Amino acid sequence: MSPAEQEKFDALVEEVIENLPEAIRKLLDEVPVIVEDSPSRDLLLQLREEGVVTPADIEDNTSLCGLHTGTAFTEQPIDNTGQLPSDIYLFRVGILAQAGGWKGTQTEEDVYEEIWVTLLHEVGHQFGLSEEDLEKLGYE
Question: What's the pTM?
Answer without folding.
Answer: 0.82
